[in-house]
Amino acid sequence: MSSEGFLKEMQTIGEKFLLKLQKLPKADPVEIVSFCVVLLFIVTVLLLMIIACSCCCYSCCSCDGRPEHRRRKIQVRPIAHS
Q1: 65 — phi, psi (to 5°)?
Q2: Which of 21, 41, 18 is nearest to 31 (CA)?
Q3: What is the mean pLDDT of residues 11-26?
Q4: What is the enclosing helix (H) or strand (E) of 48?
Q5: Which residues are CB-neighbours of 24 under 8 A, at least 6 positions away?
């Protein structure tokens, strides 16, 4: 998908979302609850993605932004008996 197509799709989704928000005060209680559940799901997914990305970034970078140099692991080999 090209960037223009992606932007057009995002604009269409945004317009539909704003239309839903405008109609929400006149909606049935079931529709309001379902909209809130979908919204809560989206917020939860975004929050979990932010937490996962921050944990991943923190594990490979130290707090000041420089990469952490980990020591190389040395394999221990058994002594050969003669």
Answers
A1: 95, -5
A2: 21
A3: 88
A4: helix 29-60
A5: 31, 32, 35
